[in-house]
Each structure stands twice: as structure tokens, then as C-alpha cells.
Amino acid sequence: MIVINRLLQLYVLLAVCLFTISPLFSADKKLWLDDRCKQMPTDLLGPFVRLTDHSILAIGNNATYVSDDDGQSWSEPRALFDQSKKIKVSNERAMLRTKNGTIILAYMNLLEKNWTWSNKKHDAPGAKLPTYVMRSLDNGKTWQDIQKVHDDYSGAVRDIIQTKQGRIIFTAMKMQHNPGRHAVLTYSSIDDGKSWSPSGLIDLGGKGHHGGVTEPSLTELQDGRQWMLIRTNWGEFWSAHSYDGGKFWRTLQPSGIKSSSAPCLIKRLESGRLLLLWNRPVPQGKESWPLSGGDGLWSETPVSNFREELSLALSADEGKTWTKPAVIARQSGTWLAYPYAFEQKPGVLWITTMQGKVRVLINEQDFLNEK
Predict the structure, then answer these.
(1) How many helices (H) and strands (E) does the chain have?
(2) pLDDT tens digits for the chain (371 residues)?
(3) What does CATH list as the number for 45-260+284-306+317-322?
């Protein structure tokens, strides 16, 4: 009994020491936020849209939520579907209220997911994660025109915009095979989301279950072109432009914006500036980060997967130049990635992440003088 008690004492002492000295429990494992960030009034991920009655609609947990007081309080969840629909909306989703007041939601259906990756084959034959789109004509109370636009495995639906001409465009993905890799495309609609047409497929090769090009974000430039920034495993986003509302994409080239292997969000603000949220490839103040992949399993080329910092930059000249990147959130050992942004009112932004628990409110003006 004495031996057992001594052993218990030693275990307790060891646990206390580990808790005290282990990086797992150290202060830098907590979520750090820039002083210019304030905690959002809600824990909802979003995306969010402003409704015609000025309330805010959010999507989460296969339900909608509505706030009449700018996010201070929210309605009880209202189910998107009855159980007969057999649809579960993915966290990787995009939502828009059109100029006509129609709400459009694009997403993947997790109930149809079938992931078949084989390390031996370097492929996922028969993999499925279908992309869907639907719309609401009554501020999100009911949904109609539910359409599956493809069956192929889709890693994420990241973004949706409406152009000055009224065309609606959202980003999507399709897994390719022999070898397994990803490619991107967009879908566009000229009838307020009743019907959709795919663009050409952007397939730049690659190998691996995260290989190829993935998860683009897009915006419209002031000259009428659409600009897409695409996640790659090559240390930076690749850039593509469309001159016809997303029917075709061209001028595919490196963007010069260094990035981790993670998606960005690019968004036009009410001020006319562009907002960029993303994960840079190395920690701020450091020169390197261990690379992963390169074996054809994750990717064909070694790449940084650093996602412990979320950065923000602004551009007043259509993306030609940017303010110095500002790290707005940092958490050691935790991925802070897949950002959303909602302009709650001009110059006031809600920023959330699907990976990690970033839920912050910022003022655009506070980040204009980064040097």
C-alpha cells in the first residue's frame, strides 16, 4: 500500500510538472488577437447576409438564424429541410442576397460524401461529395430550386458574388483522377439562381489528395473583369481572370501573393477597397516553416501548411499593391483558416474562421496605415 501511495504521489508530481512546463499547456497556446479586434457578439460561423428588413440571416447546423439587433441576440434555429430531403449542408459554403432580394446558398451535401483515397493508387476512384445550390424567396424561411450541379468530390465552396451586370457566380471544385488531384471551376446564373452553367475546368496538374488547385475566392474588379485567387501547393495563390462573367477563365499565372496551402477570402468593401484574409507560409518574423507533402499523397510538391496565424491586408488599387499584412489572430498548434467576412455596416467587419474559433469584429479604418 505504501508503494502504491508513493507511486500515486510521483504520478501527481509528474502531472503537475508537465502541466507547468509542457508547451501544450503554455500561455502561447491560447488564442491571441490583435488589440484592434473585438469579440463578435455571436459564436455563429456564418456566412451572414443582410435581409431586406435589415435583419441578419446566418446559416449553421443545417438551420438558419435571424438577428434583429445586429447580432446581439438570435432567433431559435429554423431547420433548412425536413428529414426527407437527406441533405446536410457543409461548413464550407457560400451565401448571397441578390439585388432582387433572393437568398442563394451553395454548399456540399455531407450525407452523400464517399471518400475512397488509396495511398497505393494515389487516387480516390469513385469519390463523391456533390455540390448543391438552392435559393429562398422569403428571406430564408423556405428554400426551393434545390439543384445538384455535380456529383464529383468537392473540397469546398468558398465564395459567391453578383456582378454589376447581375450575373451570379460561385466557386466550386471537381476531383480529377489518374492520378488523384483537384481542379476548380465556377458556376454562373443569369436568372437569379434558377439555373446554372459551369465554366471551363481549371486543371493545372498535380498529385495527391490535396494536390492540384483548390478552393478559390473571387471578386469583381472595377473594370468589369472577375478576379479569382486559387489555393495551390506552390507557395502562392494563382490568379485567373474572366472577361465574361465567369464563363471562361484565362490569364492563369502566379499572383505574387505568398501563401500557405490554405484558401483565402477576397472581398470588395463598401469603401471600394479590397480585403484579403489568408494564411501566410511562415510565421510573422520567421524565415521558414517545415514543409510537408512532396510524396504524391498530400501533394506532388513540398508545401507549407502553416495556418497558426490569420493575416489581413487591404488594397486601394485593385490588388496591385496591399497594405503590410497584419496578423489579427494567432494560436500555436491550432489551425485558424477558411475565413469568412461580413460587412455588418460600412467599414465594420465580422471575421470568422471555419478552422479555429476566430470570431472578431474589426474596423477597416484601423488597418489602413499598416507599414
Answers:
(1) 1, 27
(2) 433 333 333 333 333 333 333 333 334 589 999 999 999 989 999 999 999 999 999 999 899 999 999 999 999 999 999 888 999 999 999 999 999 999 999 999 999 999 999 999 999 999 999 999 999 999 999 999 999 999 999 999 999 999 999 999 999 999 999 999 999 999 999 999 999 999 999 999 999 999 999 999 999 999 999 999 999 999 999 999 999 999 999 999 999 999 999 999 999 999 999 999 999 999 999 999 999 999 999 999 999 999 999 999 999 999 999 999 999 999 999 999 999 999 999 999 999 999 999 999 999 999 998 76
(3) 2.120.10.10
User: So where are the chain's domains?
Assistant: 45-260+284-306+317-322
Query: For residue 320, what is the enclosing H or E element?
Result: none
Q: How far is 108 from 92, CA to CA, in rounded Å? A: 7
Q: How many CA atoms are closer than 13 Å to the CA of 280, on its beta-carbon side? A: 22
- Whole-Å CA distances, 295 to 63, 120, 121, 303, 307: 40, 12, 13, 11, 21
For the record, the C-alpha cell of 248 comes out as 471562361
The secondary structure of residue 346, as a DSSP letter, is T
Q: What is the DSSP string of 174-224?
A: EEETTTTEEEEEEEEESSTTSS-EE---B-----STT-B-EEEEEEE-TTS
Q: How far is CA 54 from the centre of its chain?
A: 25
What does pTM read for this prediction? Answer: 0.91
Q: What are phi and psi of 156, to 5 degrees?
A: -165, 150
> What's phi and psi for 5, nearest 5 deg?
-65, -40
Angle at the Cα of 349 (from 79 to 108), degrees rounded to 5? 35
Q: Which residues pair with 218 in a beta bridge?
A: 228
Length of the chain: 371
**Helix locations, the chain, DSSP H:** 2-21
Residue 268 burial (10 A CB sphere; 0-12, 13-18, 19+): middle
C-alpha cell at 258: 505568398
∠ CA 336-89-171, rounded to 5°: 70
State the residue for C-alpha cell 488589440.
35
Name the burial class of residue 302, with classes exposed (0-12), middle (13-18) and buried (19+) by CB atoms within 10 angstroms of its CB: middle
CB 240 within 8 A of CB 250: yes
